[in-house]
């Protein structure tokens, strides 16, 4: 029977591996016992190949997959702006996030040549990657421009 590991379980395996020299077989036995499901040496090997990426990620613990953002620079700047607005007690709607992302996309160098679409799917992925709740608010779009002036984006 095949069962998929959550990101938290994969990270736990990586951290246990950091504890000292341990073979994949021993790590497989430890993880199988700890997590209550069979985990093969091949699975351990695949997890350890992505160890740096897994330990450096801030993904939710119940997630089973992690997809890197297409525009990490843009997302980083957008998230910084979001935090600045949050500190100013401004609730940001989905429409405001998309509008700000479009504004920022003109000034941030693109990682790829293809045109980027700020779809609802992208928005949900962005919010999920950064732990932003789905609350909506009716706040004026003037805050988009105020945030731009605050941080000089």
Automatic annotation (TrEMBL):
Q: Which InterPro entries does the entry mention? A: CenT-Element_Derived, Homeodomain-like_sf, HTH_CenpB_DNA-bd_dom
Is the keyword Metal-binding assigned to this protein? no
The entry lists its GO molecular-function terms as: DNA binding
TM ranges are none
For the keyword Cytoplasm, the answer is no
Pfam families, A to Z = HTH_Tnp_Tc5 (PF03221)
Residue span(s) of domain HTH CENPB-type: 62-136
Task: Give the keywords, sorted.
Answer: DNA-binding
Q: What's this protein's name?
A: HTH CENPB-type domain-containing protein
